[in-house]
Structure of Xylose isomerase:
Amino acid sequence: MTNFFDGISPVKFDPASDSDLAFRHYNPDEIVMGKRMEDQLRFAVAYWHSFAWEGGDPFGGRTFDRPWYPQDSMAMAKVKADAAFEMFDILGQPFFCFHDADVCPGGESFAEYKRNLDEIVEYFAGKMESSKTKLLWGTANMFTHRRFMSGAATNPDPDVFAWCAATVKECMDATMKLGGQNYVLWGGREGYETLLNTDLVKERNQAGRFLQMVVEYKKKIGFKGTILIEPKPQEPSKHQYDYDVNTVYSFIKEFDLEGEVAMNIEQGHAILAGHSFEHELAMAAAFGILGSIDMNKNDYQSGWDTDQFPTNVPEVALAYYEILKMGGFTTGGTNFDAKLRRQSLDAEDLIAGHVGAMDVCARGLKAAAAMLEDGGLEAARDARYAGWDSAANKDMLANGTLESISARVMAENINPEPRSGRQERLENYVNRFV
């Protein structure tokens, strides 16, 4: 146990409260579209931002002071785990997520790394016996250490590729042992700075074969969870191979991994790619690969991945609209890949950040469910494309040729006039619910 969260009681649903540490919209037991709200949202705490990040930025060092600093020993790793599970209990979180580097020191060799990871996994398993909090997903940090400066699976050095393969094996084993429901691969440095020293074809083939190995190992050990790829367009690499949903989907198809791999989509990464969050979710749902989400927001003035807690209910509502429309999460969930600002030093700040984010998501979820149940957006969309429902137009699309369609245009004197897309009316419609 630590004393970091001393004096902070478990957070309760209390719409009349004026406390910063009370839920006003997140009621775990409220039924939304046939399921408990907790089961629809499937919230998770990100271990890296909440416990491993020290408040530094490119211009200055750490600002936080935590009982588990310095994070360089197994003793401190266990103090950190104690604090983490105390926070999970305070928030009533159903899940958490972690990278290996978040939960234990790496050591001086791979053997020492493995011993440390095995030890903390055993410690987590003991903590989880008395906690409701489960593991949503695990992953390997293959971007922070200097060995990954030129990539992980895409690295020009085969020894780095081998190290990464061994690391992912250990992290998959750890995830399975802890009952994780997914395993995530995020290629934080799977990209390049300049073509002057880069073989694109070789690096892409290495990444594809690496992912095939992951799927092969999943089947060998009987891991029942989902393998997820998380796209990111830039930062730190200038050109990332996993740029967005479309890019990753083409990669999945190229290496014959359809049906084997889904996607973990982050709001902040969608924005960096020049898309909206709902666009990326809708594309993944259309391809049948929407698995899980990282919920956060970016500062739209900064132009980089600021990982702030979500505060925009309309944006969140449109995101959950796409998730609910596809039937909701299965193994996935809502991971708060979000961190405090450097000036937010206190334990209460860490709780309050999650409380507010959970309330924003709850409001967004309820708005999304209300829109789906009302059916206004779907009815408007159906009406816009209704012309394609006629037998003649279905046949044109399925069997037409340029010659036959040209003949039809001439015979029927087709001379179309544009029709309104009614965007403003639909925006007003959404605002009725948010």
Summary: The chain has a mean pLDDT of 96. The chain has two domains: 31-374, 379-431. Residues 4 and 66 are 8 Å apart (CA to CA). The longest strand covers residues 134-139.
